[in-house]
Amino acid sequence: MKIRLVRNIVVALALVIVSFGIGYRLGLGGLNNQSFFSSVKIINQTGGKTSDVDFSRFWEVWNRLNRYYIDKKALDPQKMVFGAISGMVSAVGDPYTVFLPPDQNKEAKEDLGGKFQGIGAQLGVKDKKIVVIAPLKGEPAETAGLKPGDWIMKVDGKETMNWTLPEAVSKIRGEKGSKVMLTILHKDASSSADISVIRDEIKVPSVEWEAKKIPSSCWQGGKCEEVKEECGNCDLVFYIKLTRFGDQTSDEWTKAVTEINDKINSLSKSKVKGLVLDLRNNPGGYLMGSVFIASEFLNDGIVVSQEYASGQKQNYDVDRSGTLLTIPMVVLINKGSASASEIVAGALRDRKRAKLVGETTFGKGSIQEAQEMSDGSGIHITTAKWLTPSGKWVNSTGLEPDFSVSQDEAKPDTDFQLEKAIEVLLK
């Protein structure tokens, strides 16, 4: 779930090569490596740079594993190298800076493509715990009872504490029809529960919309509830649900907005009362996707700023001519709204374009760059933090709504947050 996968830099020399290059030069002085070289052939050791690091310990541990470990079949050299690289990357202490072996890297790209096999849930890391950011509507995770904020304590009996996000995804995903047992601690629950989930093929459109019919009496203090049947005396509020900022989102968004504008143009302007953009349970995606979406509603100016370790800032401004620049709007958010969705919500509020309704967002304020290796593996590196147009950094704290509304779990068929959003629009 990374908010910047804009530059797919193909790096010719994998970190595997760097590690072996350093180890070969620095390890020879402290350890006889004959046992290592007798079992593994180093096929490439170019690209490493001399560094003041005692790398002999790596070879010492490697050799002792090969010499003493009871199950020699379990000693897969490639997996051990990938594990060593993962350990090196995780040592920086950032859950979003991760190394992904080829299979996990493929899964990460499938996420943003919108088609994969699994349980249908977006996951995150909070306080070193694997948590559910958002179960996808109608998919196995939601059907099984997973909710935003759930802590996944175990996967098939294995403790998840300190797992990286790719580790969790790789363990939870699997072939359609297979089962995975999750030990879950629901938010505010005192005890955990085991939930069996049957995996399926997950196909998720990122953009959906509808025109909601609202009785005109809402303006005079009546209830602002959607009318399902035909209603000649109703006003319209357009509703757009955006589930992620992925590979197909720009095309899906453009199609949806074209249809919305066609509908608006066919109506009396007095009938169109506003628009609700629903970013609830949207875990993010591409940084430039957030700029693209925000640009639909803003004339010009800053959408988001990147700030690097040096203190240097890079502003991302409105990058196109939007078509929904004047329609009144409200944005729905909750604790499952993260990263790119927080960028859009923060920009629209800071620029006085929209009010926020719902719950405080997740609070992911960092930007990752995805770099792909020649063998199909990848590394996601946190390169900057992002700031709203007013300079706010949302990391860990999130965005607080202008109108705080909790969703009553005892009444799942009533969307109180959406009702409040429509009320804010119409009153």
UniProtKB/TrEMBL annotation:
The keyword Hydrolase applies. Keywords: Hydrolase, Protease, Serine protease. Residues 97-173 form the PDZ domain. InterPro entries: ClpP/crotonase-like_dom_sf, PDZ, PDZ_sf, Peptidase_S41A, Tail-specific_protease. GO terms for biological process: proteolysis; signal transduction. One of its GO terms (cellular component) is outer membrane-bounded periplasmic space. GO terms for molecular function: endopeptidase activity; serine-type peptidase activity. PROSITE patterns: PDZ. It holds the Pfam family PDZ. This is PDZ domain-containing protein. It comes from Candidatus Gottesmanbacteria bacterium CG11_big_fil_rev_8_21_14_0_20_37_11.
